[in-house]
Structure formats: structure tokens, C-alpha cells
Amino acid sequence: MLKIGQINTLVIHEVLHEGYTCIAQDASIADDEFITYVFLPYAESILSEGDTLEAFVYIDKQQQCVATTKHPKAVTGMTVLLQAKGMTDFGAFFDWGLEQDLLVPSKFLQAPVVIGMSYIVHVFYEEDSQRVLGATKLHRFFAETDAYSALKVGQAIDCVVWHETDMGYKVLINQQYLGVLFHDQALAKHKIGTQFSAWIKNIRSDDKIDITQLQDNPNSRLNLQQQIIADLEAHGGISSLTDKSSPEDISYKFGVSKSAYKKAIGTLFKNKQILLSKDAIKLITKE
Length: 287
Prior knowledge:
mainly beta; five-stranded antiparallel β-sheet; CATH 2.40.50.140; 3 helices; 18 strands; CATH 2.40.50; elongated; 4 domains; 13% helix
């Protein structure tokens, strides 16, 4: 059975002057009624009847079922960062690695796009139109609430930023849920498409999800202290990353907030493991 918008294993059914007709490898050729033919206009090598190949199957502008040996940047069900190539009254077009750009119809568009900018796009197959389409309105495909209590406060999660607001960032959590990262809970400024690890901060009374990058518990503080010591040992016992350094520099080096870093080096100083100055941190070596 053919899977539109997916990579399929196809069998060459007939060699034509202008290309090939194919069927799915698991299709029955005993009864033509059950065969769905796919047109393959081009292949990188000469093919013969009965040959098999891996190809992406989609519906072209002429509403014809076609295949290509080029693999797109995403297949149906995937959510990826794509660059906008065009904006029209009926939608936006994105570069997804094929000659025919991916259409995001207006009804699935979060906001008008800027050509050349990149956006998070969910790729899906629409049964009604029989087309592979994209969407930047992720709430049409992912839950905005944790109605079944699948997530727990303090749980580690993987996130990708898909939209920015005045209050912070809308994120896709574990490729399943939509949540919010407020500015005061972020380690640094994020771009659309930025991926990072975070934690569940709060499940609101309406089941919507808040996340944080500022996990602060004894285990994480101890781990950060160990990382700082290891970094000092690897660099001759000295570091220019002090409590006066920028939040961006601290986040880039250790992936934590400036507040968490200051707490860690403060503890190390109290424990007489480091010396602090305006310009440097020095490791106290045991004699």
C-alpha cells in the first residue's frame, strides 16, 4: 500500500519513454483494480521492469501521484525548521528540498512569513485535498494541555522554539505538547528552531504547561560545581569566566543561568576550592 508523503519501496512496473510507472512493493499485480500506479519521471540510473527503489511519493500540481528519488527535508508527521520562499494570498511556500515547494495554506499559517526567514513547520497529509501540506499553527496538531497528567513538575524534557511572543517563547515539548517558556525562565535569547533541554516548571489549573531552563536543586548545583572544577583543571587552574561575565557567555560555557553560576562559584569560594578576583577564577591546589 502506498504511503503518500512518505518514503516508499517501489517496484518498476513499466518502462516508458519519459520515465517509469511504479507500484508499491507489497501491492498485488494479480488484480489491476488494487494497483495504485506512481509515475517516476527521473531516476539517477537506468532501471528495468521489476527493479526496486526507495522513493518519496507525493501529489504534484497536476494532482498526479508521482515519486522522486530525492528525499525531502521532512516527511509527513515530522516537524522541522524550513526556510520561507514565497508568500501569497492563499498561503506560504517553503523549501523542503524538492523541486515543488511545500505549501502552507493560510488556514494553517500562524502569521505571514518573511521570505528568507526560517520557521518551524509540521508536515502532514490532508485527506480532503489529497495533498502533502505544511502548517506553522502547531496547535492544530499538538496538545496545548496536559489533560492526562503525563508530565510531572521537575521532569526533564527536550524542547524546540516554534514561536516568539512579548512574554517569551512557545515551545514544542518532546514532539508531543506545546508549552511556554517565559523570558525570566530562559537562559538566553532564543531563535526560532533553537533546541534545548529544560524542565517542567508548572502545570496550570487549565492544564497548560510552563517550562524553565533554570532548574535549581542540590544535585544540579553539585554537578555544576564539579563541571567548574573540571574546567579549571583542564585549563591550568584559571578561568576568565567570573560572576561579572555576561549571561550569554555563562550559558554558552555551562548551559546555566548567571544566577546558578554565581551560586556555584560562591559555594566553591566558601569551601576554599577557588580564589575570586575581578578578572579571573583560580583553582586552589592542594599541597
